[in-house]
What does this fold into?
Amino acid sequence: MTLPMPQPKITLSGITKTFPGVRALHQVGLELFPGEVTALIGENGAGKSTLVKTMTGIYQPDEGEIHIDGKPVDLPSPHAAFKLGITAIHQETVLFDEMSVAENIFLGHAPKTGFKTVDWRAMRDQARKLLEEIGADHIAPDERLKDLSIANKHLVAVVRALSIDADIVIMDEPTAALSFKEIQDLFDLIELLKKNGKAILFISHKFDEIYRIADRYTVFRDGEMVGKGLIKDTNQDEIVRLMVGRSVDQVFPKRSVDIGEEILRVAGYCLPTEFADIDFTLHKGEILGFYGLVGAGRSEVMQALFGITKPSKGAVKIAGEIAVVRSPADAVAKGIVYVPEERGKQGVVVDLPIVQNISLPSLERTSTRNGFLRLAEEFALAREYAERLDLRAASLSQTAGTLSGGNQQKVVIAKWLATKPRVIILDEPTKGIDIGSKAAVHAFMSELAANGLAVIMVSSELPEIMGMSDRIVVMREGRIANEYDNNEDLKAEALVRAAAGISEEAA
Amino acid sequence: MNTLIRSREFWLALIVAAMILATNFRAPGFASPSNLANIFNDTAILMILALGQMTVILTRSIDLSMASNLALTGMIVALINAAYPAIPVPVLMALAALCGLALGAFNGALVWLLGIPAIVVTLGTLTIFRGVIFLIAGGQWVNADAMSTSFVQLTRIQFLGLPILSWYAIVIAACFFLMMTRTALGRSIYAIGINPTASVYAGIDVGRTTFMAFCISGMLAGFCGYLWVSRYVIGSVEVAKGYELTIVAACVIGGISIAGGVGSVAGALLGALFLGVINVALPVINISPFWQMAISGGAIILAVILNARGEKRGGRLILRQAENAS
Amino acid sequence: MTDTSAETRHIPDRLDTPLRAAIFSWPALLLLVAIALFVVNSFMSPYFLSPWSLSDATFNFTEKAIIALAMALLIISGEIDLSVASIIALASTMMGLALQFGVGMPGLVAIGVMTGLFCGMFNGFLVTRLGLPSIVVTIGTMSFFRGISFIVLGDQAFKGYPASFAFFGQGYVWWVVSFEFVLFLVCAVIYYVLLHRTNFGRHVFVIGNNKVAAQFSGVRVERVKFILFCLTGTMSGIASVLLTSRLASTRPSIALGWELEVVTMVVLGGVSILGGSGSIQGVVLAAFIMGLVTFGLGLLNVPGIVMSIFIGALLIFVIALPIVFRMIRERRT
It folds into this structure.
């Protein structure tokens, strides 16, 4: 139901946002029209979440303007955005688990009685009415949010948006972890919101969903807007091409290396609610890429391999011997190391100096036999690997938190290389990193493979996966969808389809 | 769902009732209305203090200075009463509350404006407040003979079968219940404990709300200063020494999570009553009161284990359940 | 892009010299405060500078300071143990019980220390195996341990410790230097090495800074924390031997309130209550400062309770000062 030449409800223009070392958004523009769904498409690191945070007042743009109903506005805080009628439904609810549904809907703007106290009855009634309006009358206003499924939590977030009459609704990958029926219900709800004139931004990788409900699309790539238009004027292939196409010289091509003997074999790996029936092998000198959508379960598999979680079933063989890994310490002892996705939380200790970060798993080697620290040895070790990785830092005693994302990643990689591992798992190794460091990491990965290491690379960036991997495993919803040899015949579209569960298009 | 939270308090109430009945079995008369009223009255002050501590713990802080606050304000009003018996006692009660409020505000300001962790601030003020008692009283004690009759009586007058001290607790608990469930401040206190980030998004001022929580705990501690000094007819440096941890224990037993955001008025009251019943029941069934501390300690440990069970989070949901193809 | 020259870039180890870093550190500040207090005290009271006087001064803080050494490591790792004073009481009670059974001096010492160790293991189990928050768990064990002492002793006391036992708390190693003080210094050196010079100490810092990253780097977080609780328990046991020996008796009410003084000593010593940073030098200096304040004020006949005002105020002041400076600096820019 589109109006002829509609006016956008909200317009962002020239938005630029830079973080130390990374240009997250560059001169980006976006428009949302009332009563229409605009799909925002792009790979991880393309800038989508940064844009959402800018629209919801969490970040302030370095440059650019935001107009609502034609008038320029400032969004200095999340509350300001809320007041202006912008709400977002995130993958993880930013609501109050221990409070009731009704209270979550009305927190901050609860109906009051004459005595200025919270009017619970009115709150419950209004909540019930709103829930009915969107067809969610199966949710009781008194239920605790904690007890609801993710789908229902999303619905509560939507109702919260409706309760303040928000005109701009942002949905960030809302269908991750929803069942088929729940997704249908969500779409019905979106149709209802459209009918009520809301301007909706729908972020998703899943093409079938995008084609079902979106009216318009905008594609981001590397922090820039590379294409937009009406859905009916385009097709899937074109969108995929926009997402993926990028100059080849920005990715370091993989050297061809002799693939050695099998070093890792995983069979029947299962962890309830996270992944099931995972089988794959890995060889020395090989780079095995793991592709999939966000939430496909790849990191979960890797963390189980690394001993963070314990699988319920399955066997892991390292160099032909069964390996029982019960903790990261075990994994490291067996030669498996893991470079985590969340660098700041899991990878580096930000308040410790670089040298201590790098030496941490290798302390037994650098210290004396009785466990006394030898600082000179630590510095020597750190220096060797930091220089090998071309780390940009003023000194090794600098705290890791002051480094750019790319350099922090080098610290993490250095830390693990110093343990002389057999298998190195990299989880989204170049996420949020500038181009220069990306290339360095890629070059380094090739070098590792050339030296006989076995590399697993979890990535959501197609050029990276296709440029670096010898073989590619695609995961979807906790299972392996398919496995491919990375030769000239392999097309990016095949990977995207396998990851999203779309069937092959007729050639 | 909602019953899950209610059931924690429900079970605690059952346990307290069971303890009373068991004691009554061994020592008939224990569960008589007049004895129950006595137990309630003896626990009244702890109940009020537990409510104050609950407010602070909900905001992910802690207040270790409540007992010293109580002792100091109690001494102040006792001294004033001894020197100027003509001042009406209700005025002194208000003064005690105000004094306590000021002390609590001092704590709150340091936590809010300087960002010093609450445990450090209240560790410091715990000794400072108690030391000030000595400065103003010079080591002297205020005894019953120094206090005016009305000063002493205003915790003892019987009203509808209960001493007025019990009524103070009942009224305060009721007000608290209303505040925590029906005012924006009360809901904000819960919100910032559950999810500080989401609270900021919802426009709640986390620092200011924490400050208010300390003001409330201080005010209650101050008021209890009068109550204590009047009830036990003693004003001294030793009043309520070491009591701060008992107050926290009452909250923990009552199901108030040290991680913040979880806990109820009923829980705080029941936690206090639990400790109060043990206190009175043990001598009655010929268990030496020296067992009391160990039993409370064991109860606290059990309560913490149970609290932790209730806070377990589920795993990530990636594998879909069997498709409901419709 | 990068100048892809063949030579690798050289990164220096440090920009600061260690000396410079040491001068602008918290322990340096504490040292200044300690010296100032020493000077002030010697002016305020003629009795202060006598060797025996100074020696007496040490008794009132060495027992707590011994515990503070282990507590510092525990707090740096992000936990806390509020049951240490109760462990002293329980260990003392166990020693007293053993005394009734005729156990000799070496046995008494062993029992005291072992009781401390077992209490520490109990705490450690609750926190690391059951995953419970240490602050409330140790409030529970605090009551539980002392409660057991009360059950055993009631309002009685154990007396009659052998003369040989008295050496620990009352004896002198050389001239005015007491055994307690020497033991404290020895322990301080051991803990300094443990925290600042071993792998274990490094693990403690890392865990306190970022438990998750530590785990992801192969550090056995739970095992380290368990050991730390064992250490605080053991040091409390040792302190109990010293205290019981000094008092030559056991009562269930000994060391009441000591846990908060120990924590104050640790925080005053520059250990962040949130974990991740601190030094043994700082804790030792803080112990000296608290000792100087209490002893100096004692010579001026200031009652103990007023002394604690100074300690409380000192704690807040010393934590608040850097924060206030930082806020003023930020206001200026």
Observations:
- Chain C is about 70% helix and 5% strand.
- The domain at 48-332 of chain C is CATH 1.10.3470 (ABC transporter involved in vitamin B12 uptake, BtuC).
- The first helix of chain C runs from residue 18 to 23.
- Residues 86 and 145 of chain C are 6 Å apart (CA to CA).
